Fold:
Amino acid sequence: MQLPTSTKNKEYKHSPRGSWTAGLLTLAVSSTPALAQETLTPIDVSGERIEDPSAPVDGYIATSSRAGTKTNTPITEIPQSISVVTADQMQDQGVASVQEALRYTVGVGAEQFGLDSRGDWQSVRGGDPVIFLDGMHKTFGFYQSPRTEPYLLERIEVIRGPSSVLYGQGNVGGLVNLATKRPQAEKSTELKLQVGNHSRKQAAVDSTGALNEDGTLLYRFIALGRDSDTQVNKVEDNRVVIAPSITWRPTNQTEWTVMALHQEDRSGTTTQFLPSEGTLKPSPFGLPQIPIDLFISEPDFDRYNTKENAVTSLLSHQLNNVWTVRQSLRYSETEVDYQSIYPQFTPALKENGDIARVAYANKPNLDTLTADHQAEALFSTGNVDHTVLLGWDYQHAVSSSRRAYKADIGDLNVFNPVYGNYDRLTESDFSDTPENTVIQSGFYAQNQMTINDRWIAVLGLRHDSARNKTEGGTAFTDEEVTGRAGLMYKFSNGVTPFVSYSESFKPVTGLDAFNNPFEPLKGEQVEVGVKYQPTDSASLYTATVYDLREKNRQAPDPVNPNNQIQNGETSARGIELEAKVDVNAHWDLIANYAYTDTEVEEGNNKGARLPSIPAHTASIWSQHDLRSVGIPGLRAGAGVRYVGSSWDGTDQLKTPAETLLDAMIAYGRDNWELALNVNNLTNETYFTTCLARGDCFVGTKRTVTGTLSYRF
Structure:
């Protein structure tokens, strides 16, 4: 909608609830050791050993997480659903992207829009999770952030449910935190060569160790190069990544890690937006079905090229037996050159097999500065152990772009495509978009209390200020206070039931028909569950039920379709069951099931289910070291993924369920290992979702990769 002239350079502001602000100050003051009235005693942790969340995990089961509380806390002591995908699991399953790594994670709709070279898309509890990298915001808008290379990651943490108290603006469904590999004291080097179908060729190196004799200076160097085609004709998937890092530990109390990243991707668009008639449904006019490897675009025009340069600083210092301070800081610059040709909406085949097409180009630049400052205190008051966290985080993102769009550029016959006959974009078709600046800052306070070594309570409050300013346009400022509360009880047999309440908010830019700024999206969730970790076992079992709601969703104005109104409210209720089992020294097992019931409570399509969200998903993955049966060095694994049927957002078009098989086998001897991974073993043709606008998204066909590794 065109902004009225009278609103230019005017700033709109939403204010939070005052009572929550007072509560935030009360929590911060009462939780601070220097200000508390009781005599405080530092917690004695000499006999405890909590897994370092930034260190490598041996196997599939992580026992602690920093993402859930921003403190080093056992997962069984966090009153929220958390899943961790380790580097070992990613390696065994042969993942090529972040969304592939989440295929066996409960409550996550991985590959929500099929194979997409432009981004990693997934849903969590019916919502689109915000992506974080090392605890800081990674994604800003669509198609402005290159996909993260999974070989750089030590783990992927999925936090299900609202997380605004610690992370600011975000979706009610949850967030995904990507944790990068960091320098290690133990020297090791890994060399990898990989080949696969679609002419895939990839080489990688990962080396780490100490740079001096006393081990105060550590390094890590990761590099990867790939040359590959994809399952879509004429679309490549090429990548170069260089990621050096260094850690300085001058004392046992101080650690400073600096990481650099250079990444360049040269690709095209694998998403072809094929019409539902001819893919999911029979073709019209008696035509055959559309080939799923069809390239709708033009070879001399289509590209999705990205470049990112980033520097990250992670600093930690223990002041005394009570206080530790931390600072995380990242600056990044990204450039994207995106242009492609798609079917004209609503996509439909003509009687001769032609399809009308449109051209689109977008060339955004994005500069971001993100920071998170924390002060953590460990102390006791009577029979209560406290972990108090006070923090301030900040985001500053500036983006600009050149865009072009042209309709009716020339038809393409989907059964006999002949390329080159189309109306090309010219310089006059491009226009510069105004520079957009997004600034968010937030103060947060959290108190984790353990009472009599049995009860665990977590309380948190946050005040956020988010400002969105478009050059020459209207500035919008939203302020909000969000809260979080959780309670757990630790039984001596490893069973820990919990209940929690949490809130989320996400600013919405723009004005309604009366020139009033839109209210932020607001969400809340109630969750009840139980976590079980048997004594003397790393196995972890989690069962949860939840009810979440989000309001202030936008919908077309029924009086004036060119305007938007905020009358939308959605809900998601569900059950999640997850088991990560260390069966024995030679057997790892992952199993999960999720039931997700979504509904539009208010607004357009009231009563309909949310698009692309299957009600039922389940998976199981088993990996065996076969030395127990007399074959040392041989490992084998297999998995089954079930993705239930989903709807288009209007409950008119149903995407059927699909069951997919994955398998791996590896043989290692001395320092060498040869691994074979096959995903979608039976080469099923399936669609991950079809939308009400008439297009469908093709799932990933069979992929085969062979990897030779040498470690020393």
Remarks:
- The radius of gyration is 26 Å.
- The first strand starts at residue 11 and ends at 14.
- Residues 1-10, 16-38 have pLDDT under 50 and may be disordered.
- The chain has one domain: 5-711.
